[in-house]
Amino acid sequence: MKQLEEKDTQLDDMTQEVREKERLLEEKNQIMGQREKLLEEKENQLEEKDNQLKEKDLQLEDSNHRLGEKDKLLEERDKLLEGKENELKERRQEVEEKDNLLEEREKQLKARDKQVEDVNNENAELAQQICDVKTEVERLRREVSAQMTEPGETSDTGSILPVRRRDSMDDPPYMGGETSDTDPTFPPRRRNSMELNPPDMGGESSSPDSPVSPSVSELRLVLLGRTGAGRSAAGNTILGREEFGAQASPSAVTQRSKRREGDVCGRRLVLVDTPDWFCPGLSLEEMRQDEGLCVRLSAPGPHAFLLVIPVEPSKGEDRGVLERIEEVFGESCWEHTVILFTHEDGLKEQSIEEFLQAGSQDLQQLVEKSGSRYHVLNIKDRAHGTQVSELLDQVEEMVAGNRESFYSSQTYQEAEDQRE
């Protein structure tokens, strides 16, 4: 019995061991199942990653293809840039060659300008020599005329003086009018108080007792004034045509003195337009050179300085203008000065007298210095011819009051010597 009990006990123990082993196996099976699930999940994840990698490989392949195309484009652009650089180099060479040509042409132009200036100087000297010859001819004519009027002299003047002829060397032709065929014993006809021949180089052409009136073949006028005053426009208005560049601009239009000629209101005019000599930015050397050019262009000397002042509120520049004119031309220039007030319908209902009364003391002093000689000129209305003829009449009256004298080159030289 004991053996059976022992065997039963052993069987129970073995049964328990088997059960325990079964339980352990079941647990292991569960663990294995879980692991299989994990493996399946990981396999799925790996498969997804493989798919992602394949997609990335495709994307990389596409990117590489695009990069290849871009590399080709870059190569083509590099070639284009290289071609353009070569073109730029060629163009730079062309520009350099053109610059060299321009520089050579500028040198040639400067040389031509110098030649032109030399020719102008020679012309001015020739004009002065011609004027000297005319003056000598006039002096001889006056001497002959004086001999004719002496007591006891025969009245048959025709045997003393030859008949004047248009092509005679003794009497240069009138520049814009008619010649007189009357008896040579009578003084030649005056036309607007201006005569045939030029005045004497010294400034006076005859004495008051001379039986023959002095003669002037042309009126020489010099335009002076600040930038923007309307000098060039006034010159164009006087000549009745566009000769001097003129525009509505605060900057200077005239850079160097210019000479223009024309027949105006029965008179031969020589008009010299000057730059702004009153500008503080103008160098002394440039100013001196242009002053000398103005003197040569108006040789043997101007009959009148036309000081151009716009009809507008004063900017306080009149004092500098007065001092500068006296410094350049000397005190005596005021005897030959007419102030020219320019406007473009700027006066309106205001008279010039009211404008002067309301003006600055410096402006009033300018008018006083010029002997209260002034004229108003509408530079916009060129059709109004009387304003020009009245101006020229006033200039002639001034010249007649100065005993037919003009501002001579000798007077300018004396003023220049005083400056130095």
Automatic annotation (TrEMBL):
<dbReference type="InterPro" id="IPR045058">
    <property type="entry name" value="GIMA/IAN/Toc"/>
</dbReference>
<dbReference type="GO" id="GO:0005525">
    <property type="term" value="F:GTP binding"/>
</dbReference>
<feature type="domain" description="AIG1-type G">
    <location>
        <begin position="216"/>
        <end position="416"/>
    </location>
</feature>
<feature type="compositionally biased region" description="Low complexity">
    <location>
        <begin position="205"/>
        <end position="216"/>
    </location>
</feature>
<feature type="compositionally biased region" description="Polar residues">
    <location>
        <begin position="146"/>
        <end position="158"/>
    </location>
</feature>
<keyword id="KW-0342">GTP-binding</keyword>
<dbReference type="InterPro" id="IPR006703">
    <property type="entry name" value="G_AIG1"/>
</dbReference>
<dbReference type="Pfam" id="PF04548">
    <property type="entry name" value="AIG1"/>
</dbReference>
<protein>
    <submittedName>
        <fullName>GTPase IMAP family member 4-like</fullName>
    </submittedName>
</protein>
<feature type="region of interest" description="Disordered">
    <location>
        <begin position="142"/>
        <end position="216"/>
    </location>
</feature>
<keyword id="KW-0547">Nucleotide-binding</keyword>
<feature type="region of interest" description="Disordered">
    <location>
        <begin position="1"/>
        <end position="116"/>
    </location>
</feature>
<dbReference type="InterPro" id="IPR027417">
    <property type="entry name" value="P-loop_NTPase"/>
</dbReference>
<comment type="similarity">
    <text>Belongs to the TRAFAC class TrmE-Era-EngA-EngB-Septin-like GTPase superfamily. AIG1/Toc34/Toc159-like paraseptin GTPase family. IAN subfamily.</text>
</comment>
